[in-house]
Amino acid sequence: MAVQTSPRPLDGPLPGGTAGAVVTVEPMVTGRIQVAKAIQASPSGEMGLIKSLRAMRGETWAVPVPAFLIHHPSAGPLLVDTGLHPSIATDPDANLGRLAASFTEPEVTKGEDVPARLRAKGIEPGTLRTVVMTHLHVDHASAVSEFPGAAFIVSKAEWEDATSGLIPILKYYRPQQFDHAFDFRTVDYEAASINSFSTFGRSFDLFGDGSVVLVSTPGHSAGHQSVVLKTGAGPFVIAGDAIFLEDQLDPGAALAARARDRHNYERSLRELALYRREHPSATITPGHDPGFYERLPALIG
């Protein structure tokens, strides 16, 4: 599917970095969607498209849709993912499309959406300068339209996959959510300038100061990326949907039933699991684990 928006490559760090910078992070649950348990964790292994669609009509549970507000001491506030759009509270079909809305049965209550939460903190959404997208699936890119002043940071592989193909929703994309004349910047993890970081083979230092490091974790989607934050309490890793559930980093755990690229998905899991072993104090967020987000305030103090 063709889109009108043309991204620009991000070849170097964004301005605003400061040597020794440490950030703070505020996780936000922006609503819930219904997800088939068999899709999130399948003991029987990978499912094909038809079997996955059937599974979505099986046993489901309400899972959180998170976004993360990060405070950088000199670059200012930035977001990771946008959460569910406020309009979903009254008209989910308009934002998600009829098919995705019917399968996910989204729920957003008043004040849960990211724009409302930012305004409550004295931050006008239109003034936000940076939004990092772990990927562009419909539940993560739902509220892109609410941040017209931001540079959106997405991997090159993710942008290319999200804007190609005849039926994007079969890959869980809805280009109408992000096809705006905004400032999209793409990180090419195949570029010669890309470095490794800790246990991750490919990374990009967003501000050049080590406080916000993007790491390539493809597989769930073609160009999925995670975010490693340097906080005063230790490393904080926003893993996005590289893992759905917290225990999927444990040996022998049931993994997601579907992935865009199974080999890369499992490789990304191994890199995350190794990072956890080497940094036992790190907090690593799963994409949609209800129990984890109930406990998270206590975990981060």
Write the layout of secondary structure elements.
Layout: E1 8-9, E2 24-36, H1 37-40, H2 49-55, E3 60-72, E4 76-80, H3 92-96, H4 98-104, H5 114-120, E5 130-132, E6 151-155, H6 156-162, E7 183-187, E8 195-197, E9 200-205, E10 212-216, E11 225-231, E12 234-238, H7 262-278, E13 283-285, H8 290-300
Parallel strand pairs: 1-7, 4-5, 5-6, 6-7, 12-13
Antiparallel strand pairs: 2-3, 3-4, 8-9, 9-10, 10-11, 11-12
Structure, explained:
The structure is a single chain. The chain has 301 residues and is α/β, with parallel strands linked by helices. The protein has one domain (21-190, 197-300): Metallo-beta-lactamase, Chain A (4-Layer Sandwich). The chain is 22% helix and 25% strand. The protein has 8 helices and 13 strands. The protein has helices spanning 37-40, 49-55, 92-96, 98-104, 114-120, 156-162, 262-278, 290-300, and strands at residues 8-9, 24-36, 60-72, 76-80, 130-132, 151-155, 183-187, 195-197, 200-205, 212-216, 225-231, 234-238, 283-285. A 7-stranded mixed sheet has the order 1-7-6-5-4-3-2. A hairpin with a 2-residue loop joins strand 8 and strand 9 (200-205). The longest helix has 17 residues, at 262-278. The protein starts with 7 loop residues before the first strand and ends with a helix. The mean pLDDT is 93.
